[in-house]
Amino acid sequence: MFYSLQRIIRRIRRQKELGVVVLAVIILLCLVGNALTFYFFDRNHPLHKDVTIWDGLWYSVVSVTTIGYGDISARSLGGRIGTIIFIIFIGLATFTTAVGMIVDWIVDFRQKERTGMGKQTVRDHLLVVNFPSEARVRQIINEFRGDTRYRASEIVLLTDQIEALPFQMDKVSFTRGWPLESGTYERANISHASQAIVLSTGYDDPRSDSMVASITFILNNVNPDLHIVAECLDPKHDVLFSHSNQLSLVYPLEMANNLLVQESQDPGVTKLTQVITSNAIDGTLASTKVRSDVPTNLGYVEIAKKFLDHGVNLIGIIRNEQIIIELRDVAIKNDDSVVYISKSRHSWEDLGEFLA
């Protein structure tokens, strides 16, 4: 009997999904069976005159969990035989098997989490694709969370360039896999992500732009509402990214070269650029879309003056993908994106109040 029980338990452990249900049912039957046996045989015993079925259940629980307080124990022959069958032979073996399965699951879950093979359950998270270096990724995470709106945001790193996450940060998880496979994004819970940043595979990799473009194409197809920001090393390759209206491109090498030249011609430009492009330093470059009806005769020069009274420096607008820096004779329109420098970001409702 005992050998047969061991064979059944080994089979249950191999089939974990079914095993959970089977073990739970066996443990429940053992507890109820032992409680009923104890109550039936021991309720007439002189030491157990006031025993109830709930006492029997308590006795069963503390026995099968090996706690054994000793405040209640079977005195009758029938009660002891029931304890041997339901607790010692079946209950203890089943309970220890269940505990072993739980421990295995915890270890397996932690291992999958550490190596990025588990399925993400987070929502409204930022997805960062590719891992060019630990320093860059950590800086991006810290910069993203420098904005108070995203300080508590979940972040999922997706890459096949590392085998395990080399650092631990709060609410930062890891999905390991080939970034051109849809199954990898399913494990990253891409359907519930709010935005994505696709990094280059490396500034010295000539195939980086084609890889990044392929990744953004997959992201756009899996989640068309996802806002994507991607690195493009060569501006000539921007044609590769023309498949999505939800995609914004950043040209890091071109921007770095431009800053080098500007700093050589106008010393101090780089320091200001560092301030306005960082969430971690007081003063940031931001944009807000005009969302409500506004008087069409209101010009941006007048708007810039009113903004300035509230510490908002208007530097330009984006209209139909066109950048407008010269604001004279330009009237405000709905869906314009106003670009400004301020200590904090403002919603259009806040900016609209400045115009009142």
Structural account:
With 356 residues, this protein is of the alpha/beta class. The chain contains 11 helices and 10 strands. It has a 6-stranded parallel sheet. A 4-stranded antiparallel sheet has the order 7-10-8-9, with helices on one face. Helix 5 (134-144) links the parallel strand 1 (126-129) and strand 2. Helix 1 packs antiparallel against helix 2 (16-42). The radius of gyration is 32 Å and the shape is elongated. The mean pLDDT is 84.
Concise synopsis of the structure shown:
By secondary structure, the chain is an alpha/beta fold. Strands 3-2-1-4-5-6 form a 6-stranded parallel sheet. It has a 4-stranded antiparallel sheet with strand order 7-10-8-9, covered by helices on one side. Helix 1 packs antiparallel against helix 2 and helix 2 crosses helix 3.
Key phrases:
single chain, 356 residues, alpha/beta, Helix Hairpins, Rossmann fold, Alpha-Beta Plaits, 14% strand, elongated
Topology:
Layout: H1 2-14, H2 16-42, H3 53-64, H4 77-115, E1 126-129, H5 134-144, E2 155-159, E3 172-176, H6 182-187, E4 195-198, H7 208-222, E5 227-231, E6 247-250, H8 252-265, H9 269-276, E7 284-289, H10 300-308, E8 313-319, E9 322-324, E10 337-342, H11 348-355
- What number is the mean pLDDT? 84
Query: pLDDT under 50 segments (min length 5)?
Result: none
The value of Rg in angstroms is: 32 Å
The named CATH superfamily of the largest domain: NAD(P)-binding Rossmann-like Domain
The SSE order reads: HHHHEHEEHEHEEHHEHEEEH
Number of helices: 11
**Class from helix and strand fractions:** alpha/beta
CATH class of the largest domain: Alpha Beta
Termini Cα gap = 86 Å
Approximately what portion of the residues adopt beta-strand conformation? Answer: 5-15%
- Report the principal-axis shape: elongated
**Count of the separate structural domains:** 3
Strand segment tally: 10
* CATH architecture classification name of the largest domain: 3-Layer(aba) Sandwich
CATH topology (fold) name of the largest domain = Rossmann fold
Helix content: 40-55%
